[in-house]
Amino acid sequence: MAEEDAVDRRLRMGVMMLALALGACSTASETVRLPPPPPLSPPPKVNCERPKAAVGRYKVGEPYKVAGIVYRPVESWDYDARGRASWYGAGFHGKQTANGEVFDQDALTAAHQTLPLPSVVRVTNLENGRSLVLRVNDRGPFVAGRILDVSRKAARLLKFHDKGVTQVRVQVLEKESRAAAAEAGWKG
After folding, report:
1. N or C end of the chain: smaller count of CB under 10 Å?
2. Domains of the chain
3. Which residues in 60-70 are b (16+ Cβ under 10 Å) and which e?
4. CA 145, CA 150: separation in Å to the nearest integer?
């Protein structure tokens, strides 16, 4: 009988150990409630109007040459291109742009080699998806492989200010561009 009791005790002990081991593997049935995520902040308001100090004029212009490269400005309302963009700021701040406006590094503006001045473009940073509407009022960039220079503020909002350059898509917004051109003296 003592032998049966010892086997019985070992069997009960084994069952208890198995139950404890299985219990450690089970999951709790409690529901964990996380607080709701904070609301998304609205995107910044975009103002593609002329900077306050600007008194620009509509300009397409004749072909011109910079560093041995000839650029041919053209009236283009369906421009849509991808390439590299850079930014410019303090060294040009307060100076006159190609269409006579005063460059403000804290305005939402850009420089393009051949688009009519002014034009309104949507610029999308292809590396992070951020997008802005900018007023093109200057010529440039004149660095191989770049299609657009944006103001310091635009580079910050597009999140490439620290990097210096990024891949972008530039699309002319026809309706807005025609309105900006008409305001600057375009006779269309």
Report:
1. N
2. 64-183 (2.40.40.10)
3. beeeeeeeeee
4. 15
Q: What is the pLDDT tens value at each position of the chain, 188 positions in all? A: 555 565 566 656 655 555 555 555 544 445 556 566 556 545 444 445 544 445 588 999 899 999 999 999 999 899 999 999 999 877 888 888 889 899 899 999 999 999 999 999 999 999 999 999 999 999 999 999 999 999 999 999 999 999 999 999 999 999 999 999 999 888 87
Kindly state the tokens that stand for 72.
């041919």
* Six-digit token string for 149: 């220079």
Torsion, CA 22, CA 27, CA 30, CA 32, rounded to 10: 160
18, 56, 103, 130 from 180: Cα distances, Å: 79, 10, 17, 24
Question: What per-residue string of b and e applies to 23-48 under the rule 16 or more CB within 10 Å gives b?
Answer: eeeeeeeeeeeeeeeeeeeeeeeeeb
